[in-house]
Amino acid sequence: MGSYLLHCAAPAAPPSHPPSDGSDDPRPSHENQPQKSGAEGHRGPVERPDRELIPPRIAYADALATALSAVPSAQLLETVDPLRTEARGLLCRRSGLPGSTDDTVLVAAAHGARIPDPVVVAVLSRPGSGSDVIALGRALAWLQTHTGGSA
CA–CA separation, 36 vs 136, rounded Å? Predict the structure, then answer.
């Protein structure tokens, strides 16, 4: 440890020869470089311009619904039930009602909250086909976008 302190405390050696105009000095000159501002001066690796971004929620919901539409009809209801539960919770929150609200009351409140009819129908209907699953996925994406996230 003593040698470390001596090394740090040792004065820097003067350059062997002063550069005439700075062009033959191999050391970087901070005086001649333009000032960087904002994001240009950030630290860390530069993001690749071709990096893959997360898909928008609606496109993701469509892809998920399309994949789920391949599930046999007997398993379809069980498979999408968690999505229906989340979508119904968001519909209730957006309508200003508790999650245990009856569907008829929820429909009236949803219309009063100006929630589009296709969203309400998709959330409250039991999906029986691939197009119903896609409609539920779109409704869930709309509710997540317009209510601030998951229930």
Answer: 48
